[in-house]
Amino acid sequence: MAEISAAVVVKLRKTSGQSMGECKKALEEANGDMDKATEILRKKGLATLAKRAERETTEGAVVAWQSEDGKTAAMATLCCETDFVAKSDDFIALAKDLGKYIAAGGAEPGANAILQTVVAGRNFQEVLTDVVSKTGEKMQVGDYVRFRLNGPGIIGIYVHFNKKVGSMVRIEADSEQVAQSPAIKQAASDFAMHVTASKPIALDAESLDPQLVEKEKAIYAEQVKNKPPEVVNRIVEGKLKKFYSDYCLLMQPFVKDDTKSVEQVLAEAAKHTGGKAGIKQFVRFEVG
Questions:
Q1: Which of these, 145, 150, 131, lies nearest to 49 by C-alpha position?
Q2: In angstroms, how far is CA 88 from the centroid of its own chain?
Q3: Which fold would CATH assign to domain 6-51?
Q4: What is the pLDDT of residue 54?
Q5: For the whole model, what pTM was predicted?
Q6: CATH says 54-148 is which class?
C-alpha cells in the first residue's frame, strides 16, 4: 500500500469537503489515487441514499430564482431529514448551488429534471450525493417547476422567511406597460404571498378535478337528504360556491382585503393602468 501523505489528504479534503479521516480512508482504499478516492467518497454518498431511502425528508428549504428580465422564474424544494442539517453550512451551500441549477434547468417539471441538469460539467445529483456523503443524511429535490412569459406579463414570487414555503404566480397582461405598472407589480407580489397563506388548489372552478367536485356535492347532498329536492339543490349549490371561494385562487377573498376576491383586486389594478390582466398559473411548494 502506498504511503498517504498529509498533503494529499488535505488536498482531497479541500476538493471533497469530507473529514480528514474519511479522506485518508478513501485514499488508502484507492492506493493513493485521487480520482479513485473521490469516486469512493461519492459511492459512500450513494450508499447512504440507498440505505436511508425510506426515511422521511420533512425538513429543508424552498429555493427560487428569476431571470434578470423577469420573464422566467423557477422554484424547487430541497429536502432533508432533520432541522439540524437544514440549518447547517453544508445544506445552505447546497441550496445556493440548487439556485444555479434551477436557473439552468429546462421547462420540464419534476425533481428528475433538475437532478440531471448539468452546470460546470456536473449534474445536480452528483453535487447532492457529495453532500449526503458528508452529512450521512438523506437529501432530495422534492419538486421543481419553471414559469415562462411569452408575452406581456409578470411573475410574482414569494418565499416565507422560514424558507419552508413559497409560491409563484404568472400574470399575463394586454401590454407591457400594464404588466410593468406599479399596481400590477404590487399585485403580483401580493398574490404570491396570498397563495402561500391561503393554499388554493386550483385557479378557478373549471380547473378543479371533476371527481373532487362530485365528491363534495355528494357529501353536501347527504347532509341535507331529508329536505325537499329543490331545497337540497339550492343548499348544495350554496355550499359548492363556498367551496370554490375557499379553494379556487381567483375566487378566494384577498388576504389583504377580504371584501374583494383575488380576481376583483387584479381587475381593479389593471383598470387603474388602463388595461387588462389575468392570472394564468400558480404554484405553491411547502417542505414538510
A1: 131
A2: 20
A3: Helicase, Ruva Protein; domain 3 (1.10.8)
A4: 76
A5: 0.81
A6: alpha beta
Rounded to whole angstroms, how far apart are CA atoms 94 and 52? Answer: 19
Report the alpha-carbon distance of residue 49 to residue 199 in Å, rounded.
31
- Residue 157 near residue 70 (C-beta atoms within 8 A): no
CA proximity to 125, closest of 92, 94, 150, 156 = 94
**For residue range 162-191, what is the model confidence (pLDDT) as tens digits?**
999 999 999 999 999 999 999 999 999 999
Measure the CA–CA gap between 268 and 281, rounded to whole angstroms: 19
Q: Do 57 and 79 meet the contact criterion of CB atoms below 8 Å apart? A: yes
Q: Residue 159, SS3?
A: strand
Domain boundaries, the chain: 6-51, 54-148, 149-208+248-288, 209-247
Residue 221: alpha-carbon gap to chain centroid = 37
Spatial separation of the C-alpha atoms in residues 270 and 251, rounded to whole Å: 17
Q: What amino acid is encoded at 264 in this protein?
A: Q
pLDDT value of position 17: 62
CA distance 132 to 258: 45
Considering the four listed CATH numbers 3.40.50.300, 3.40.50.880, 3.30.479.20, 3.60.21.10, the one that applies to the domain covering 149-208+248-288 is 3.30.479.20
Q: What DSSP designation does 116 have?
A: T
Q: Do 54-148 and 149-208+248-288 come out as alike in CATH topology?
A: yes
220, 213 Cβ separation under 8 angstroms: no
Give yes or no for a contact between 110 and 75, defined as CB atoms under 8 angstroms apart: no
Q: What are phi and psi of 172, to 5 degrees?
A: -105, 145
